[in-house]
Specification:
The protein is α+β, with helices and mostly antiparallel strands. Helix content is 33%, strand content 9%.
Length: 89
């Protein structure tokens, strides 16, 4: 979550406001509509919403970066944009 905290600081948001939710069961995953780890939501919105074909559950998540590469972490720019949108609301 270091990348999220760093982008929060840049956006002028106190990183202490970061809330981490541990999803430990398939029931938790269903309740939170959890498409895998890590899922990063800002203001309740996923930084890269999963497609309808992506399963909900305890799994590892794959993100597509803006340059097309696959990654276990979202593109930093997606986090930045989501934070900027949240601040402007």
């Amino acid at each position: 979550m270091g990348m999220v905290r760093a982008e929060m600081e840049v956006a002028g948001i106190d990183p202490a406001e970061l809330r981490i939710v541990e999803v430990t069961s398939e029931e938790d995953a269903a309740r939170h509509r959890f498409p895998g780890s890590p899922t990063i939501r800002i203001g309740g919105r996923d930084v890269q919403p999963p497609g309808p074909e992506e399963p909900i559950g305890l799994t590892c998540r794959v993100y597509r970066h803006r340059d097309g590469r696959l990654s276990p972490l979202p593109d930093r720019a997606d986090i930045r944009v989501a934070l900027e949108e949240m601040v402007s609301r």
